[in-house]
Amino acid sequence: MELIDVSLVGQRFTWFRSDGSMMSRLDRVLVSESWSAHWGARFVEVILRDVSDHCPLILNHKVLNWGPKSFRFNNCWLSHCGIERVVRSAWEKQVRGSWAAQRIRGNLLNVKNALKKWNIEVFGNVDTTIKSLTNELKELDAKNEEYVLVESERSKEKELEDGIWCARRNKLTLLAQKARIRWGQIW
């Protein structure tokens, strides 16, 4: 039939016996010469399996290098009180350059790097924040079942609830931005 067996990338085998005693390349992708001429270079990526005995396959027809990923500003950062100070201090750092465009580029690069670092160190992962705050609230609820909470524990409980709501709003804003949804007002 004059079909071409597309080469694998990632793993050599696509099927594994459950006890691990045997493995084979059962799954294949075959393409015609005309398809190959039209779509160009191609390869089959073997994805790691989980509970199945077969590995999923992805047919890639081109390897495109789009260059470095662009910097994205997350709108949920604006809800944090420290963002303005981070941007201002990064912008005001001395930058060398004889042209104004070079200095502006340097300032923008400073802001980008400062925001990346700030996001990791201060803002953090929204899902992790929600999970940790929820666990702390769960511990206080367990204490409350055994005895009446003192005033400091009540105020801590209120802070945790506020923190969870804030983190959930941040997550909603982030998801809306990622989905490129334009909402009139997000909370």
Short description:
The chain is mainly alpha-helical. 48% of the residues lie in helices and 11% in strands.
> Helical segment tally?
5
Count of structural domains: 2
- Beta content: 5-15%
* Multimerization status: single chain
Helix content: 40-55%
What is the C-alpha radius of gyration, as a whole number of Å?
A: 26 Å
Q: Are there runs of 5+ residues with pLDDT below 50, and where?
A: none
Label the overall shape. flat
- Number of E-type strands: 7
- H and E string: EEEEEHEEHHHH
Characterize the main sheet.
Answer: 3 strands, mixed
Name the structural class: mainly alpha
Identify the notable features of this structure and list them briefly.
2 domains, flat, 187 residues, two-stranded antiparallel sheet
Note down, in words, how this protein is organized:
It contains five helices and seven strands. Helix 2 packs antiparallel against helix 3 and helix 4 packs antiparallel against helix 5. A hairpin with a 6-residue loop joins strand 3 and strand 4. The protein is mainly alpha-helical.
Helix-strand blueprint:
Elements lengths: L2 E3 L2 E2 L5 E2 L6 E2 L5 E3 H7 L3 E4 L10 E4 L22 H9 L8 H24 L2 H21 L4 H28 L9
Helix pairs in contact: 2-3, 4-5
